[in-house]
Every structure is written in C-alpha cells, then in structure tokens.
UniProtKB/TrEMBL annotation:
It comes from the Eukaryota. Pfam families: 2Fe-2S_thioredx. Keywords: 2Fe-2S, Iron, Iron-sulfur, Metal-binding. GO terms for molecular function: 2 iron, 2 sulfur cluster binding; metal ion binding; oxidoreductase activity. Its cofactor is [2Fe-2S] cluster. Binds 1 [2Fe-2S] cluster. Gene3D superfamilies: Glutaredoxin, NADH-quinone oxidoreductase subunit E. This is Eukaryotic protein. It comes from Schizosaccharomyces octosporus (strain yFS286). InterPro entries: NuoE-like, NuoE_N, Thioredoxin-like_sf. The lineage of its organism: Eukaryota, Fungi, Dikarya, Ascomycota, Taphrinomycotina.
Length: 158
C-alpha cells in the first residue's frame, strides 16, 4: 500500500517550485522553506509524516530532517497560539521612533492587552527604510505610528 502523502495537492505544487530553485543534487537547500510550508499546512508543529515526505523530497534521512526541526524548537515544534507583534528595537527604528516621539511600544502594549496579542521587541527586520518597523502575523509593516498599529491589530480581530 502506498503511504498517504502529507502535502495537499496545492502545496505539492509549491514543494516542486521550491525544490526546483536549486540545482539537481542540492535539494536539501530547500529544507527550511519546506518545513515552514509543512508547519503552515499543519497549523502548529510538524508531524513525522511531513518530515518523512520532506526527507524523501530532499534526499535526506528522516533523522536529518528531524535534527533540523529539533535545532529550531521555537520555529518548528510549535507555533505560538497568541498572535505575535514584534517591534524593531534596532538603532534606526529607535532613532526614528524617538524623533517622532510616537510611543509605539506603549501603544502596542495597550492595544495588545485588549486583543491578547503578545508584544516583544526584535532586532532589525530589514525594513530600516521605513523605520520604525514592526512585524505582525508574518508581515512587516513600516512607518509605524500608534494609529497604524491600532488599525492593523484591530483589523485582524474584526
Ligand atoms: S532598524 Fe528597524 S528595521 Fe532595521
């Protein structure tokens, strides 16, 4: 009997696209994006069937895939239940936020408590051009103000 596939037909197309970005024999380079895709499909952690299928696709053993999952526990073994908001506290964003005196961290904390959003700081998001920047549910937002943070979070919950 053929084992059931983990990836949905739609995600299998994405798998093929991700793997094809690398030259033959270098399929393992697509490992992290494949794990991310598996986790998004499954919703929380990555089940063994996904690790097996990813191993078959990338010519890695189950144990090699599992080792990567273990190496990044906060990334691949669970996904936080509460929505996440990360405010960049690297130099450029701090300077811009200070210049504008926009109190975004305090605003984010206050809004977060209303919606159960977890707020933390993070290092540079690579969006310095639009400082101050923040990350909310897999998306980077730039030119943060109290108002934009409130608008973006509240939109998520309405
Ligand atoms: S310093 Fe904040 S995004 Fe780079």
């Amino acid at each position: 009997m053929k084992p059931a596939r983990f990836f949905t037909p739609e995600n299998l197309q994405i798998v093929k696209r991700l793997v094809s970005r690398y030259p033959p024999g270098q399929e393992r380079a697509s490992l992290v994006p494949l794990l991310d895709l598996a986790q998004r499909q499954h919703g929380t952690w990555i089940p063994p069937s996904a690790m097996q299928e990813i191993g078959n696709t990338t010519n890695l053993s189950f144990e090699q895939v599992f080792a990567i999952v273990l190496a990044y526990p906060t990334s691949f073994q669970w996904r936080p239940c509460a929505p996440q908001l990360r405010i960049c506290d690297s130099w450029m964003c701090c300077q811009k936020a200070k210049q504008r005196d926009n109190g975004i961290f305090e605003a984010a904390q206050s809004i977060a408590s209303q919606y159960g959003v977890e707020v933390k700081t993070t290092s540079c998001l690579g969006a310095c051009y639009g400082a101050p920047a923040f990350w909310f549910n897999d998306k980077i937002h730039t030119d943060a103000t109290k108002e934009t943070i409130k608008e973006i979070i509240s939109k998520e919950f309405t």
